[in-house]
Write a structure and sequence with these properties.
By secondary structure, the chain is mainly beta. It is built from two helices and 16 strands. Strands 1-2-3-4-5-6-7-8-9-10-11-12-13-14-15-16 form a 16-stranded antiparallel barrel. It starts with a helix and ends with a strand.
């Protein structure tokens, strides 16, 4: 099964642009891909006995984008996710295999209304909305475990409305979210809304809210998961400032289990080839029994750009300092956090 999925994905990615370009000779197609190879030194995660130098990969992506008049589409595969089937224990389909990151088609009615359908990112999370090839640090932060992640659905969006924009979508239950482990398509849904404001390339603000609902046959005491996000960024010359707050309620459907993550980020471009960054994450987890724990991660980083297009070739070096309840923190955001200091490095090459 796994080999068949990989073969299908490769064939689709390679052949689709060729077919599209041939159709009436008017389609615009773009083929893209990138690989992120990583290295780490230090425990990083609690219970990790391997604290020496080790290598891995974050993303191994191939995909294409296609535009035909006002219609467009995208397919993106991550071969680093080929071992995740997309099936629950009862063998019922909850979504396409996770090797498929995006499979979406859309149509632009006007600047104020663009509709898209398929599998794609739900509109919660400013940093989550950035492709992994454009992140300021080597890893996605702890807040990404609280957003609704990718889901299959339909969304209407608008931009260029005197600086304002919006996204409104309805999706299948957000099973790919780290804060959701319930919901069956047709017996549960996710609903998301976001408003944005942009002032040229200088200022960006956004606020969003979403929920993923339980099944009709959910266990007694189970509740819908809800999440709220508030974020912004500001650029001033060579400096970049960012901040985001994400708060989830009824994590994993457990009433009274709330968790939040915020971060503050500062970056300074020394020149076109070098940028230094610092980002601090703070996570807080409250259980229904009243217990509360917290975890902090501070990233100190250096981004080295090796190509004219920064995303095409770069090296990222991060030292992460862990703080707070490093031995007792049990929140879901721990999965994307570190409970011990660690050095991270990533080499990215793409096209």
């Amino acid at each position: 099964m796994k080999k068949s999925l990989i073969t299908l994905a490769v064939a689709a990615v390679v052949s689709a642009p060729m077919v599209a370009s041939a159709a009436e000779g008017s389609a615009e197609a773009e083929f893209f891909g990138y690989t992120q190879i990583t290295a780490a030194i230090g425990e990083g995660q609690e219970g990790n006995a391997a604290d020496g130098l080790r290598f891995g990969a974050d993303s191994i992506r191939l995909g294409y984008k296609i535009k035909h008049g006002k219609a467009w589409g995208m397919l993106q595969a991550d071969f680093n996710k080929a071992d995740k089937s997309g099936y629950e224990k009862d063998n019922s389909v909850i979504g396409v295999p996770e090797i498929i990151k995006d499979a979406v088609v859309g149509y632009k009615l006007a600047d104020a209304a663009r509709v898209q359908a398929g599998l794609f990112k739900t509109p919660i999370g400013m940093d989550f909305a950035n492709p992994s090839k454009q992140l300021d640090i080597t890893k996605r932060g702890m807040e990404s475990y609280l957003v609704l992640e990718r889901a299959a659905g339909l969304m209407v969006s608008g931009r260029e409305l005197a600086g304002f924009g919006y996204d409104i979508g309805v999706f299948n239950p957000a099973q790919r979210s780290g804060a959701v482990n319930f919901g069956t398509a047709g017996d549960g849904s996710a609903y998301v809304g976001r408003v944005t404001y942009d002032m040229d390339d200088t200022l960006h603000l956004e606020a969003s809210y979403g929920t993923s609902t339980q099944d009709s046959g959910a266990a007694a005491g189970a509740d819908d998961y809800t999440v709220f996000d508030l974020a912004g960024s500001y650029k001033m010359g060579s400096m970049t400032f960012k901040g985001e707050y994400v708060a989830g309620s009824n994590v994993k459907g457990k009433a009274g289990y709330d968790e939040s993550v915020w971060y503050l980020h500062g970056g300074y471009a020394i020149n076109k080839k070098n940028e230094v960054v610092i980002r601090h994450y703070a996570a807080d987890s409250k259980k229904a029994d009243g217990s509360e724990t917290s975890l902090g991660n501070t990233y100190i980083g250096w981004n080295i750009f090796l190509a004219k297009k920064k995303k095409d070739a770069r090296i990222q070096l991060n030292y992460v300092v862990a703080s707070g309840d490093t031995k007792t923190f049990t929140g879901v955001s721990k999965a994307n956090g570190y409970t011990s200091d660690v050095f991270l490095a990533q080499l990215q090459v793409g096209f």
